[in-house]
């Protein structure tokens, strides 16, 4: 279990001008950190996110998250509000962000209600209602988790016929037409917070940027399909369509959605056992790598069928 550094805690306390009376790790006992405060007139707690000493590239991730949270506040999106950022770690000792607390939990239930699933789609739609071009901190994204080389992972593991077909299908198709909008870039249920079945916020914006809505919608549909089965993905799409303020929402036709579903499946490790710990860490200890692999592959085959293979 890691601990928040004294320098980062001191920086956070100076920002809010209050005493930190308790520190709670929000991910497996480690950071980000929930800091409980004493002496602040409004805030009872804040969230401190810190980098790791000597890790390359993390300043860019913190700059992206800060830029995304600023846009989220400007557009009144359900997300934490940025209180301060020390991108280069000159004061906190490591890159650090301080933000407000989103009330609720990110644990994933055994059974998802239609309200919950459509709420996920609606939250994504709200993000995609913000038309944007690339700007500092928010680059163009053509898929989720762009800093991870899934192609190399597949080559190292061995390329299955299903994923070979998926790669060839995407390579042979142009990216669907669409306006670039704000995208979260890592939209799965572990990065959402709920109070009951009501979504209260999207968190962890360090993979954000601008791109087409499918950069988020495909992975979110895939995620719910892996947790709950294929029908869950269709409820997410229904919520997105019912809520979307995207200027060209009519472009989310079956073929376009299927394209982004295939892209989403290609942005997963060959064996989902690689991601099993964060999945079970969200409370779904009933799920096995075999079940998740089976559901992921079914999702991909369904998308390929919709594209006409």
Notable traits:
Aminoglycoside 3'-phosphotransferase, Chain: A, domain 2, two-stranded antiparallel sheet, Phosphorylase Kinase, domain 1, 309 residues, 9 strands, 5-stranded antiparallel beta sheet, single chain, alpha+beta
Describe the structure.
The protein has 309 residues and is α+β, with helices and mostly antiparallel strands. It has two domains: 6-99, 2-Layer Sandwich (Phosphorylase Kinase, domain 1), CATH 3.30.200; 114-306, Alpha-Beta Complex (Aminoglycoside 3'-phosphotransferase, Chain: A, domain 2). It has ten helices and nine strands. It has helices at 6-16, 58-74, 114-128, 150-157, 161-171, 214-228, 230-243, 254-266, 276-281, 289-306, and strands at residues 19-27, 30-38, 45-50, 82-86, 96-99, 181-183, 192-195, 198-202, 209-211. The strands form three sheets. The chain has a five-stranded antiparallel β-sheet with strand order 1-2-3-5-4, sandwiched between helices. It has a two-stranded antiparallel sheet with strand order 6-9. A two-stranded antiparallel ribbon has the order 7-8. The longest helix has 18 residues, at 289-306. The protein starts with 5 loop residues before the first helix and ends with a helix.
């Amino acid at each position: 279990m890691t601990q928040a550094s004294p320098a980062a805690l001191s920086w956070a306390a100076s920002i809010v001008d209050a005493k930190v009376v308790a520190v709670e790790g929000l991910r497996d006992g480690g950071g980000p950190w929930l800091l409980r405060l004493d002496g602040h007139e409004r805030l009872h707690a804040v969230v401190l996110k810190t980098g790791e000493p000597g890790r390359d590239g993390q300043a860019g991730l913190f700059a992206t998250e800060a830029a995304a949270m600023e846009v989220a506040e400007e557009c009144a999106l359900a997300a934490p509000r940025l209180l301060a950022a020390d991108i280069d770690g000159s004061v906190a000792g490591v890159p650090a962000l301080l933000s407000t607390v989103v009330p609720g939990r990110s644990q994933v239930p055994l059974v998802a209600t239609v309200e919950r699933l459509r709420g996920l789609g609606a939250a994504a739609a709200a993000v995609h209602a913000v038309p944007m071009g690339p700007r500092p901190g928010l680059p163009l994204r053509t898929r989720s988790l762009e800093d991870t080389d899934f192609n190399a992972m597949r080559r190292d593991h061995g390329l299955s016929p299903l994923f070979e077909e998926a790669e060839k299908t995407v390579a042979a198709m142009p990216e669907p037409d669409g306006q670039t909008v704000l995208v979260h870039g890592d939209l799965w249920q572990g990065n959402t917070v709920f109070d009951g079945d009501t979504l209260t916020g999207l968190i962890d914006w360090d993979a954000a940027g601008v791109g087409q809505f499918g950069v988020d919608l495909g992975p979110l549909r895939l995620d719910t399909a892996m947790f709950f089965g294929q029908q869950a993905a269709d409820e997410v799409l229904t919520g997105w369509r019912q809520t979307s303020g995207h200027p060209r929402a009519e472009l989310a036709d079956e073929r376009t959605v299927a394209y982004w579903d295939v892209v989403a499946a290609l942005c997963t490790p060959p064996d989902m056992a690689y991601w099993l710990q964060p999945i079970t860490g969200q409370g779904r200890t009933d799920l096995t790598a075999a079940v998740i692999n089976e559901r992921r592959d079914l999702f991909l085959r369904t998308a390929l069928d919709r594209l006409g293979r």
